[in-house]
Amino acid sequence: MYQIQVSAEYIAYLEHLKDYLLNNFGKDVKNQVIKAEQAKFENLKHFPYMGKDANSLSKFLQGYWVIIDKHEYLFYQVDEDKMIISVELAFNAKEDVIKKLHKHFN
User: Fold this and answer.
1) Distance between CA atoms of residues 82 and 89, nearest Å
2) Which strands sit side by side in the sheet containing 65-68, from one edge to the other?
3) What DSSP letter does each residue of 53-78 carry, written as one string?
4) Secondary structure element (H or E) that encloses residue 92, with its range
5) Bridge partners, 92 (sequence order)
6) How far is CA 89 from CA 56, 66, 77, in A?
7) How far apart are alpha carbons 79 and 28 in whole angstroms?
8) What is the pLDDT of residues 19-47, one digit of tens each?
9) What CA–CA distance (Å, rounded) separates 61 from 56?
10) CATH 3.40.50.300 fits 3-105, yes or no
């Protein structure tokens, strides 16, 4: 089974998401979304290539994978030798993901 490492960018995204959900939808919705995020990570530990090759979205994403769902894009890399999945970035699906990616990589 793979281990998950998360970047500072992902942690900031998650904290912002928690605050947004709590302030706009309440504690129950926030908890449901966080449980879904945890379940996604548990699946990823067992199936590291469950995402899509992110290179199809942008040339900057060579070596990245992306999980796209109704609410977010989650970008990660897989280190086969160390059996580590590095979660790098996450964006809300309503954002201009390509613009944010170009900003991140430039």
Assistant:
1) 20
2) 3-6, 84-92, 72-79, 65-68, 52-53
3) EGGGT-GGGTT-EEEE-SSEEEEEEE
4) strand 84-92
5) 72
6) 16, 9, 10
7) 35
8) 999 999 999 999 999 999 999 999 999 99
9) 8
10) no
State the pLDDT at residue 74.
Answer: 95
Mean pLDDT value across residues 60-83: 93
- Which residue reads 């290179």 in tokens? 55
- Are the CB atoms for 90 and 6 separated by under 8 Å? no
* pLDDT exceeds cutoff 80 at 58: no
Specify the amino acid at residue 51.
Answer: G
- DSSP string for residues in 10-34: HHHHHHHHHHHHHHHH-HHHHHHHH
Half-sphere exposure of residue 22, counting CA atoms within 13 Å on the CB side? 8
Residue with tokens 């160390």, as numbered in its chain:
82
| Beta-sheet pairing, 84-92 with 3-6 | parallel
Per-residue pLDDT reduced to its tens digit, 80-97: 999 999 999 999 988 887
- Euclidean distance between CA atoms 105 and 21, whole angstroms: 28
